[in-house]
Design brief:
Keywords: Membrane, Signal, Transmembrane, Transmembrane helix. This is LPXTG cell wall anchor domain-containing protein. The chain has 189 residues and is of the alpha+beta class. Helices cover 22% and strands 34% of the residues. It has a five-stranded mixed beta sheet, with no helix packed on it. A three-stranded antiparallel beta sheet has the order 1-3-6, with no helix packed on it. It starts with a helix and ends in a 6-residue tail after the last helix.
């Protein structure tokens, strides 16, 4: 009797849900923009010698057979204040563009930023930035390929110890499993 009451309750609950309309929520718009994504790249020497002009190379890539065209705005800002020191807008018609910047103050850090503004809606905007410094280059201060102040992390030194410890533990665990399996006697029939 108790089982039939539970069964009847489950059937009534299912039947009552059949007549309830499902919530028709508002459909969200598709985030597709129709513009082809672009990728800006900027290249500046990590260390610029005092008294020399900054040489900046910029380019824009897109996953398209059509070359992106438009304008590239290049700005040099002082770090860490963010004050703009120099800016220039150049016409971009593909390839790599070489822009010669100003002579900057010695013993300072700067950031060069490139912003691409396409000539139509076919391509999307993009932005790239790179840090550099103006310092004397000599035997005591060689050019630093890691950016100003050597800001890139060390990827091989201290972590080597942990890599060797992990490999040793893995080998020890494998040897223990092999030894333990060989010690057991085979099952007799």
């Amino acid at each position: 009797m108790r089982g039939s009451v539970v069964l009847a309750g489950a059937i009534l609950g299912a039947v009552s849900l059949v007549g309830v309309p499902a919530h028709a929520g508002a459909a969200a718009p598709d985030p597709y923009s129709g513009s082809i994504e672009t990728d800006c790249s900027i290249s500046v020497p990590a260390v610029v010698e005092p008294g020399k002009r900054v040489v900046i190379r910029v380019s824009v890539d897109a996953n398209s057979q059509t070359t992106p065209t438009g304008d590239i705005a290049v700005t040099i800002t002082e770090r860490p204040s963010g004050d703009a020191v120099w800016d220039r807008t150049v016409n971009y018609n593909g390839g790599s563009k070489r822009i010669v910047g100003p002579v900057l103050d010695k013993d300072r850090s700067y950031a060069a930023t490139a912003r691409f503004f396409p000539s139509d809606n076919t391509f999307a905007r993009c932005r790239a930035s790179e840090a550099f410094a103006v310092n004397s280059v000599d035997d005591n201060n060689p050019p630093d390929d890691n950016g100003p102040g050597g800001l890139l992390p060390d990827t091989g030194g201290p972590a080597m110890l942990w890599l060797l410890v992990g490999v040793g533990l893995l080998g020890g665990g494998a040897a223990t499993v092999v030894y333990a399996r060989r010690r057991t006697s085979p099952a007799t029939a």
